[in-house]
Amino acid sequence: MHIHILGICGTFMGGLAALAREAGHQVTGCDAGVYPPMSDQLRSLGIALTEGYDASVLAETGFKPDMFVIGNVVSRARLPDGNPRYPLMEAILDQGLPYTSGPQWLAEHVLQGRHVLAVAGTHGKTSTTAMLAWILEQAGLQPGFLIGGVPLNFGVSARLGGPAMTPPGRPVFVIEADEYDTAFFDKRSKFVHYRPRTAILNNLEFDHADIFDDLAAIERQFHHLVRTVPSRGRLVVNAAEESLTRVLAQGCWSEQVFFGPGLSRSGGFTARGEPQDFEVLKAGQPVASVEWAISGLHNQINALAAIAAAEHVGVKPAEAAKALSGFENVKRRMEVRGVVARQGGEITVYDDFAHHPTAIHTTVDGLRRQLASNGQASARILAVFEPRSNTMRLGTMTAQLPWSLEHADLAFCHAGGLDWDARAALAPMGARAQVADNLIDLLAQVLAAVRPGDHLLCMSNGSFGGIHGKLLSALAALAD
């Protein structure tokens, strides 16, 4: 089969392309931004890429895809001059050519017949999916997976997996289950297509303000996911989330296993100890212990979810915990991008994907705890961030920003292109917060404030203009 993917350079669609190519399909694709590293990864797999969405590709000799797979970046929107933003999509519709969404194609051509373990939640999906895939790999189940990031243990974001099977006779596939919409013609959440037998519901907050009106609308989509889990399936649910309690109250037909800190529910998973060295308790009894290099209470909770999900396919908690001792996290999750030696102490630059206020708060708090455990409780954290996600750009969560940064000593916000006043939003932080309208000014602010021994935590769900490399270069030059 020849499939042509519209929006191929997105994280999800790029992973789908890699899976399709591994399965033996001919894959081509197009996107508005065809650039490294995704373009290099795809071309290395023999996938031909086209810049833009020009409909003239349909007239090329030999270009006759069996199916067009449409990413959710594609819309029926028009440019200011009235022309369609995606002329290829218009041509596909006009000519009656076959098309489908990415999640639908994945469900029909990859997930069918597999034991799917889906990881859903507002936060922590990528890390938890990577943890679960690594646990199953170490248990010999050779999982297939599609993850919205690159797990350092695997070095790739997607693979079909091997022939190893669960006791019922199904190969396993672990997937990051996103609640964002499927396509312009299918406004259901992506995860509705996956039909998991094991589903993690990690947390649920309001997000994606561009497509959801309120939290209740997202809860409704999560319940659609719950409806697809079979009676012999398992729901692994964070007991501390009231929103998930409301989801389950709408109806549940599967086994429920709960997890979370201080959990008192019978049969649930909880932890005792510090995030980097803790016991795993099930029904109040110790069943495993985890000692690893991953920091943050949120990651301790993610680990509990992964352990509970792995148990459903036959991996004992002690075996899962042992696997996590070798887990190396995911790129752009508290990733150290570089360290610059200065007289008086090293300056460390981190990269993190945090872009929602809760995620920012969790990330900064996690770094603060990590520094304290390393005897650096007095070290300064300089949080450098850009509100880049659709939800943040709409300004629906500005009131939470000061709270999200409460554990940072200083905060620096890149406010270029925002329609709301970042200076007013951060005013409650007083002199601890600075705002810049462009990257050059932002760099100047950070460099003027940094001291030996500081930790610079850069947070964005985009490339952030390469700020990490720019900071490291400038700091190295100052050191010389």
Lateral arrangement of strands in the main beta sheet: 8-7-9-6-12-13-14
Distance between the termini: 57 Å
Proportion in β-strands = 15-25%
Rg from Cα: 23 Å
Number of separate structural domains: 3
Mean pLDDT: 88
Low-confidence stretches: none
**Structural class given helices, strands, pairing?**
alpha/beta
* Major sheet summary line: 7 strands, mixed
Mind telling me which CATH architecture of the largest domain this is? Answer: 3-Layer(aba) Sandwich
CATH class of the largest domain: Alpha Beta
CATH superfamily of the largest domain: Mur-like, catalytic domain
- Cα shape: globular
How many β-strands, per DSSP?
Answer: 23
Give the arrangement of secondary structure elements:
Elements: E1 2-6, H1 11-22, E2 26-31, H2 38-44, E3 48-51, E4 67-70, H3 87-95, E5 99-101, H4 102-111, E6 115-120, H5 125-138, E7 144-146, E8 158-159, E9 172-176, E10 181-183, E11 186-189, E12 198-201, H6 215-228, E13 234-238, H7 242-249, E14 255-259, E15 269-274, E16 277-282, E17 285-291, H8 297-311, H9 317-324, E18 335-340, E19 347-352, H10 357-373, E20 381-385, H11 390-393, H12 401-404, E21 410-414, H13 422-425, E22 433-436, H14 439-449, E23 455-459, H15 467-479
Helix pairs in contact: 1-4, 5-8, 5-9, 6-7, 8-9
